Amino acid sequence: MTADMPFSVRGQRVTVVGAARSGVAAAELLVRRGAAVTLSDVRAHLDDEDRLRQAGVELELGGHVSSTFLGADLIVTSPGVPYFHPLLEAARQAGVPVMGELELASRWLRGRIVAITGTKGKSTTTTLTGRMLEAGGHRVLVGGNIGHALSAQVDESTEDTIHVIEASSFQLEATDTFHPWIAVLLNFSPDHLDRHSTVDEYAAAKTKIFTQQTDDDWAVLNADDSAALAMARTTRARRMLFSLRGNLSDGVVLDGDTIVRRAGTELEPLVPLSSIRLIGPHLVADVLAAAAVAWLAGVGAAAMTRAVEAFSGLEHALEPVGEVGGVRFVNDSKATNIEAAKRAIESFDAGVVVILGGRFKGGNFRDLLEPLESRQATVVSIGESRPLVAQALAGRVALHEASDMSAAVRTAFASASPGQTVVLAPACASFDMFRDYAERGYAFKQEVLRLQEEWSVMREQ
Predict the structure, then answer these.
(1) Could you give the C-alpha distances from 106 to 164, 178, 455, in angstroms and in order?
(2) Distances (CA, A) of 333 to 43, 119, 368, 444
(3) Which of 105, 130, 165, 399 is most buried, by the most CB atoms less than 10 A from its CB?
(4) CB of 15 closer than 8 Å to CB of 40
(5) CATH number of the domain to which 85 belongs
(6) Whole-prediction pTM value?
(7) Residue 380 and residue 357: Cα distance in Å, rounded?
């Protein structure tokens, strides 16, 4: 929308599809902006039913009704709703505008947007970027695919706010005018092929992060990832590259034991590696990306370093859980794709035991063979994907199966020796056994706690 024709839904009939966190926030925002809102969901009951009705949201539960879609002036979708859902396709054919929750909320933001996407590392980079910007004195709101939905932050948005947004492919594919001041593409590898029909479709969704950028904006790109660089080749934005390998003449790189901003022969120290408290060398790339954004926003090295020193990582992302009998347990439930699981495995020494499996999202478990074999790893497989794991790894890697998380933790512990690590790195979605990756991670941590208690009692006897 232009400045003289601001986006408005006042007096319109708006259907919001999907009553998860984003959909609920969108429905409440739309009511506040004067729309007549119907929230449609396949579930028969919602936790927030009373609050939503009191707010003026009409609820359509237990399934979607065609007339609710075709009779709308606008449809807003939650990220969990497939972009090509038949009822959405019918609505588009009937001329009803369809947009995602991220697109809706972004139209009402007053501050600038830093949007971060990629196959892995989004949450860590988004959180750390927000903390660096706050340490540098900026007013920051962090949200999107992490924390609060963007619709829940619209009323707080001011002209001096920087919105740091984790943006998934599901959110980006349903955008049209979404315009980041800084767009970050961390990396790219096949993922979500249970939702996107092809890798190219998945890539096209990610690439939409650059579509509305101008030559006044910035694209922060991983110079070590050829696929990510290729996806950004048509962007009009200025480029800021980052690299773990350090072979850039212009960008944010490693120089010895320090992250620096290199411009030709000039080096500006930003963050010492000694300040990083994260497990896994690949997570240093996330710190590089966050530092690149912070540098563009004018944050000084001292503020960046303070933010890094105070950041010990995210829950469920290579999160140290505890130790039992000299065996360390690490929770990486957020490793929901093959590439993320590979990076997790590569973070540990020989003898690592990996709990792997869940609802398969695409990719090839054989891509894990090299890091597994080189570390003499043991795999404990769980979930629907157990036959696929066995097909890919049996005969090459020591392999056990477990029916649930309790059995998986105990089997993994029995397979490990003191000084070794058990890591939950599923490479799969959680929906076959759990509500989401967080519930899976909590289940893992709870079983480790029980094992610690059992081990303590056994040692006292």
Answers:
(1) 12, 6, 51
(2) 26, 15, 16, 9
(3) 165
(4) yes
(5) 3.40.50.720
(6) 0.86
(7) 8
